[in-house]
Design brief:
Chain A: Belongs to the MIP18 family. The complex is a heterodimer of chains A (about 150) and B (about 350). By secondary structure, chain A is of the alpha+beta class. Chain A has helices at about 35-40, 85-95, 120-125, 130-135, 140-150, and strands at about 65, 70-75, 105-110. The chains are: A alpha+beta (about 150), B mainly beta (about 350).
């Protein structure tokens, strides 16, 4: 891996208070963005021992759902504009959410507007299904992703 | 105007991961020889499917496994139907031969630096082309004894090359890429001097995002391409190949089909009967045909039909079989292959 961290001094935020989600009955087709957020907020950043939530990479506003079309959009904010770990974060999100939705749902992942120097090219790579599949067959990348997904929460 | 319908003939299960691609064996489906096709998958295997002549249903005749160590991304039968080339994310291309009912891997083509995305045989079966995320296109010559010699490594694309296709009649190679361009390659000096003779990009009314696939019409003077930019584009040439005194005739944009797809179009295939089918990430298959009621400045192609929810997930590949009454096969992320009949 790289010798120097891309962002040696990330700003760490307090974790948002967790409100226990009540056992509401949802229809099979209803996907709640806050449920998705709960599921991904603790993914560990590839470089630092903090969650994506703590680094403000993800927030509740990151997730939007269109149930009618079956589309989910996740927008995240890398900690620095030249972050090269963006594709790893994208992979982590996809692996974590792999069997989460009904099969026909489509997931798009983007960096938030203005948050990255190569926004357009990064967004293209984050959503190229073939590139994602190949990356996940790379043992080194797969290992990094698995490490990020090991839960730290009790 | 008769109403046409895409009727599902069969759903084929067996692969344990997404099915990326398939290829109908060109030497089957006539003269009493049952139709055969090969499919390839993220499960690292290739499956061979054969139609039963009395029931018309397909069943899996063989599974080619324990050779590729990663996803098998594309497969192509040689024109004689005797060899099957399979391209894999493991950076190799394997060549298989049917030896007394069993498929044996008779050769492994190495050289690409990373994932091989596509493989294609020329019309005479004397040349093979492969392309990769390493941005290059390789041309291999078929030698006796199932030997393959690399005769050219073509650089030019600036990104991942998604597909290569030989022209149906001429030894001219086409490639399309993540760099949004389509490139045309020809052997200039007749001595393995392969060069890029044309690039179809944004300045030529080309695509504005990754071009995933291309397909030729039966006569080879038109081609359709599909892209992540949500459009299909039709291109044409005045004549194909190096006709006497003419030299290479460039391809030019004919029309763009916009507004029919709202997600990436992964595959397009032109039937011998003039219908082209698209397979997209919205789980639908669409058929297009030339617009005979075309007025001046009117659309040259029209949507013949849209099959929504053709699969439960993204469609990665569609291909018409050859023969008089072609079937359409589709491959999906849902791990299944479907065979369709176009009926009225």
């Amino acid at each position: 891996m790289t010798l120097g961290l891309i962002n040696a001094n990330p700003i760490v935020h307090a974790k948002k208070e967790r409100i226990p989600r009540s056992e509401e009955s949802h229809s099979d087709h209803f996907v709640d963005p806050l449920d998705i957020y709960d599921f991904v907020r603790d993914i560990r950043d590839p470089e630092h021992p903090y969650s994506l939530e703590q680094l403000n990479v993800l927030s509740e506003e990151s997730i939007s759902v269109d149930d009618k079309l079956g589309r989910i959009l996740i927008t995240f904010t890398p900690t620095v504009r030249h972050c090269s770990m963006v594709t790893v974060i994208g992979l982590c999100l996809r692996v974590k959410l792999k069997h989460y939705f009904p099969a026909h749902y489509k997931v798009d992942i983007k960096v938030s507007q203005g948050s990255h120097a190569n926004e357009e090219s990064v967004n293209k790579q984050l959503n190229d299904k073939e590139r994602i599949a190949a990356a996940l067959e790379n043992p080194n990348l797969r290992q990094l992703v698995d490490e990020c997904l090991e839960s730290n929460e009790l | 105007m008769e109403r046409l319908e895409l009727k599902e003939v069969q759903k084929l299960e067996g692969h344990t991961d997404r099915v990326w691609s398939l290829d109908w064996n060109p030497a089957t489906g006539h003269a009493g020889i049952p139709l055969v096709f090969a499919s390839c998958s993220g499960d690292k295997t290739v499956r061979i499917w054969e139609q039963n002549l009395s029931t018309n249903l397909f069943s899996c005749k063989a599974t080619l496994e324990e050779t590729h160590t990663r996803t098998v991304r594309s497969c192509a039968w040689s024109p004689s139907g005797k060899l099957l080339a399979t391209a894999s994310f493991d950076a190799t291309t394997a060549i298989w031969e049917n030896v007394g009912g069993e498929f044996e891997c008779v050769s492994t083509l190495e050289g690409h630096e990373n994932e091989v995305k596509s493989v294609s045989w020329n019309a005479s079966g004397t040349l093979l082309a492969t392309c990769s995320r390493d941005k290059s296109v390789w041309i291999w010559e078929v030698q006796p004894g199932n030997e393959f010699e690399c005769v050219s490594v073509l650089q030019g694309h600036t990104q991942d090359v998604k597909m290569v296709r030989w022209h149906p009649t001429e030894d001219i190679l086409f490639s399309c890429s993540y760099d949004n361009n389509i490139k045309v390659w020809a052997d200039e000096g007749d001595s393995d001097d392969w060069q890029c003779v044309q690039t179809l990009g944004e300045p030529n009314n080309g695509h504005t995002s990754t071009v995933w696939a291309l397909s030729f019409n039966a006569s080879g003077d038109k081609m359709v391409t599909c892209s992540d930019d949500l459009t299909l584009k039709v291109w044409e040439t005045e004549h194909v190949g190096m006709q006497s005194g003419g030299g290479f005739a460039p391809w030019r944009h004919v029309c763009t089909l916009t507004g029919y797809h709202d997600r990436t179009i992964f595959s397009v295939h032109w039937s011998r009967g003039g219908i082209f089918a698209s397979g997209a990430a919205d789980d639908a298959i669409r058929l297009f045909v030339e617009n005979n009621e075309s007025q001046v400045d009117g659309p040259l192609y029209k949507l013949l039909l849209k099959k929504e929810k053709a699969h439960d997930m993204d469609i990665n590949y569609v291909q018409w079989s050859h023969g008089e009454k072609p079937l359409l096969a589709s491959a999906s992320d849902d791990g299944t292959i479907k065979v369709w009949d176009l009926v009225s």
